[in-house]
Write the structure tokens for this entry.
Amino acid sequence: MNFTNRIYAPLFHIGGVTIYLTKTVVSTWFVMAALIIFAVVVRIKLRKFVDAPKAKSLQNVAETMVEMMANFARDTMGTELEFLGPYFFGVFAFILISNLTGLLGFRPPTADLAVTLGLGLNTFFLIHGLSIVRKKRKYLKEYLEPIPVFLPINIISEVALPVSLSFRLFGNLLGGTIIMGLIYGLFPVFLRVAIPAPLHAYFDVFVGGLQAFVFTILSMSFLRQKAGNEE
């Protein structure tokens, strides 16, 4: 496994800037294709909707996933923000599948800072955009609390949000990717199946699932804190 973000070929040019086809781009396309195919298959299967699906049917699995995420969003963000549950379900699914691509020999998209920073900025703009819509003038007033001299500190704390979210996810996934790359480089071919297997279980499955959950729940918590109704 090569942990570097190797460039395959230039794609096109925009304003004198060359856009390259990298391992991150390829693995991201793979994740997107997997999620789109799953969504299409579920949509086709749900045309034959039944009130009491079988326990192991695709409809029951899809309903369970949607219901769990809806309940989780309601418990974490409150009823006034639970409509964002489907968005965070998509974010969680994208991060989780991205983290699991290491099992197939791909370089996880989340091991690239450009991807994780993009996810962090999505959360940042969602939080502040919704806060402006819901709080209007009170939104700006919060930056002067408890006293106006705290304005720079409050601004820095808000700017630090996407940085902390993106670097936490990026650092954990890149670290695991580098370690696995070193493991594959150190051991001979006949040992590259048995020895890396438990490490893949830890770095790709356990850490990957944990980081997907952490990113999602932190985003939800920050959103409720900033844009939710005051208790």
